[in-house]
Amino acid sequence: MIEEQAKDFLETRPWLSGICDSQSTEELKTNYDSWANTYDADIKEDWSFMPANIARTLSQLLPNKDATILDAGAGTGLVGEALAQQGYTNLTAADLSEKMLAIAKERQVYKALHQCNLEDSQIFSNSVSFDAIIAAGVFAYAHAGVEVLNNLFGLLKEEGIFLLTIREDYRREMQTALEQLPWTLVSEEDFPIYDEAKLMYLLAFKKE
Ligand SMILES: C[S@@+](CC[C@H](N)C(=O)[O-])C[C@H]1O[C@@H](n2cnc3c(N)ncnc32)[C@H](O)[C@@H]1O
User: Looking at the domain assignment, is residue 95 inside a domain?
Assistant: First the structure.
């Protein structure tokens, strides 16, 4: 019965297994480039609530609407759009996939867009840092792990806010790395995702 449910679930979301089966960052980039044009429509049912939730949570933690915000793994810019709707003005997008970023650019909510691999230790020049960093849908299997977490942490200002989504199974794998960083968990929400049995967490940390 459970296996049948899982089969139905994947049949209605063929993009999910394609993306999560990526064997390398290069393959992930190619897969997102190919997916870019239908991404928004495909994820609407499962994910459309999340960007607005993220923007609402950030506005409770960071009232300054001119704060510098990095949307790490911005994709097609759904989070940037929700942040702009909350009044945030100083948004930077970073993503592996040029095609995803091209769609993000069309939304006209980002001051700057960077095509990059967040695994690279030098994503920006040394002087760049942010009041908040958001990584939505990025810490996931075949996506970002500890290396990306540490790189992004280095780009966060003192007392900066780091907001990330993470599914409960992947959170267990990242738990030690999340706990080791000098920051405090200041907000935790959870939402059922994909099949009702799985939870997606929205976590916010404040850097010490
Ligand atoms: C599931 S999408 C989420 C997009 C967007 N944040 C949203 O909520 O709709 C994951 C995004 O992370 C990007 N990504 C994954 N690993 C990355 C990496 N190592 N460097 C840069 N971007 C990465 C992918 O290209 C993709 O656009």
Answer: yes
* Ligand 1 binding pocket mutation candidate from 143, 148, 202 (most atoms within 8 A of CB): 143
Given the CA of residue 100, which atom of ligand 1 is nearest to it? Answer: 27
How many domains is the chain built from?
1
174 domain residue, yes or no: no
- pLDDT, tens digit (0-9, with 9 covering 90-100), for 104-145: 999 999 999 999 999 998 998 888 999 999 999 999 999 999
Q: Is the CB of 134 under 6 A from ligand 1?
A: no
Q: Does the Cβ of 136 fall within 6 Å of ligand 1?
A: yes
Q: How far is CA 128 from the centre of its chain?
A: 19
pLDDT digits (tens, 9 = 90+) for 134-168: 999 999 999 999 999 999 999 999 999 999 999 99
Let me know if residue 188 belongs to a domain. Answer: no
Range of the domain at 136: 12-159
- Could you tell me the sign of the dihedral formed by the alpha carbons of 109, 204, 72, 19, in that order? negative
Dist. CA 61 → ligand 1 center (Å): 23
What residues contact residue 30 under an 8 Å CB cut-off, 6+ apart?
A: none
In a domain, 181, yes or no: no
Q: Is 100 in the pocket of ligand 1 (CB under 6 A)?
A: yes
CATH number of 39's domain: 3.40.50.150
Say how many Å lie between the CA of residue 97 and the centre of ligand 1. Answer: 8
Q: How is residue 104 written in tokens? A: 């993000």
Confirm if 199 and 192 have CB atoms less than 8 A apart: yes
Q: pLDDT tens for residues 53-103?
A: 999 999 999 999 999 999 999 999 999 999 999 999 999 999 999 999 999
